[in-house]
Design goal:
binds zinc ion, two-stranded antiparallel sheet, mainly alpha
Length: about 80
């Protein structure tokens, strides 16, 4: 998918920080420090850099942990049947 490079409606600073209309999320506004940015595949340079940064990796770990907990809850619920 192509990155929307127009940055329409955003300031230059916001765009350069990684905020963009994300194709992955049907044009939703996505930026650094959001769960959405972790699954964004727009190749926005600032987002890619953020994913590799300590903050990005930490959020990824938290997200993994959260989905693990959700999986576990679903598992337990199925066990109840
Ligand atoms: Zn994106």
């Amino acid at each position: 998918m192509e990155l929307d490079r127009s940055g329409e409606g955003l300031t230059k600073e916001e765009w350069e920080a990684g905020w963009h209309w994300c194709n992955e999320w049907d044009g939703m506004l996505v930026g650094p420090d959001t769960d959405e940015a972790l699954v964004c595949s727009c190749d926005h340079p600032a987002i890619e850099a953020w994913k590799q940064s300590g903050a990005g990796k930490k959020l990824q770990e938290e997200l993994d942990k959260r989905s693990e907990e959700i999986n576990q809850q679903n598992f337990l619920m199925e066990d109840d049947k």
